[in-house]
Amino acid sequence: xxxxxxxxxxxxxxxxxxxxxxxxxxxxxxxxxxxxxxxxxxxxxxxxxxxxxxxxxxxxxxxxxxxxxxxxxxxxxxxxxxxxxxxxxxxxxxxxxxxxxxxxxxxxxxxxxxxxxxxxxxxxxxxxxxxxxxxxxxxxxxxxxxxxxxxxxxxxxxxxxxxxxxxxxxxxxxxxxxxxxxxxxxxxxxxxxxxxxxxxxxxxxxxxxxxxxxxxxxxxxxxxxxxxxxxxxxxxxxxxxxxxxxxxxxxxxxxxxxxxxxxxxxxxxxxxxxxxxxxxxxxxxxxxxxxxxxxxxxxxxxxxxxxxxxxxxxxxxxxxxxxxxxxxxxxxxxxxxxxx
Length: 340
Description:
Blueprint: E1 7-9, E2 14-17, E3 28-31, H1 34-42, H2 49-63, H3 72-87, H4 95-109, H5 114-144, E4 152-155, H6 172-179, E5 185-189, H7 196-208, E6 212-215, H8 220-225, E7 231-234, E8 238-240, E9 245-248, H9 251-260, E10 265-268, E11 274-275, H10 292-295, E12 296-297, E13 300-301, E14 314-317, E15 324-327, E16 330-332
Parallel strand pairs: 4-5, 4-7, 5-6, 7-10, 8-11, 10-15
Antiparallel strand pairs: 1-2, 2-3, 8-9, 9-14, 12-13, 15-16
């Protein structure tokens, strides 16, 4: 089984698979400058909450090299400014500010000159990558126990290796189920408007040899009513303390349909995605994206060029619709009361 790697160190910076070009082309890009790092995160060349956090941490190292004549205080100030620029690219996913805060804390606590700080930061970014790989595996180990032989699994957006540093979040249990001979099949929502399900999840699972069927988001409820879905597993960009979940827009509708049809609805995410400072989904800031993502497919208009567009990147699924939340620390069941 071949599983792709979405983010890694390169010779000069952080190497990502440019996910905007999939599935037509698989192209790797090396990000070195602050502008390149910010642009890649903002334009979804790299995406998925864990991968964004990893790319942000590694990108901070790549874009802030020690320079001649810059002393410790000036270097730390530059580092803080670069971290803030990277943080501002995607305001909803908690992993990005979490990773950058960790990096800036390590920088402040590291003694020595800018070269020593930079070396320590590279070690810390590598640790974040390695920890994510281990977390993905742990999520898979906990989640695979919920998958029976021949399970038909619905999913939304992309929550696999392309979205993380390892084997994914919501796809991790599926990868382990396939590895253990449980023969799962996947039904992937295309995930409008950027088609992460059809472009990315279908491509990634195809690379691994796991059977996958793509469907329009609006067809998922009919598939459920026909008895062709056994369970749903989705990811999360932020989980509130009460168990409300922000995930790619369309997740809420999928959860409502699953609840109506009595189908288990699971959320799988790293424990770092749980934001105990956010009491409920009502407190989660939802990113509004450019109208042309809906008005156009590529350069072709699919709606009038001046029509008003509502294009939230995420929606909030209430905890009452979630059967369980799978993290690297175990399977959490309602009522959810996450605390630090």
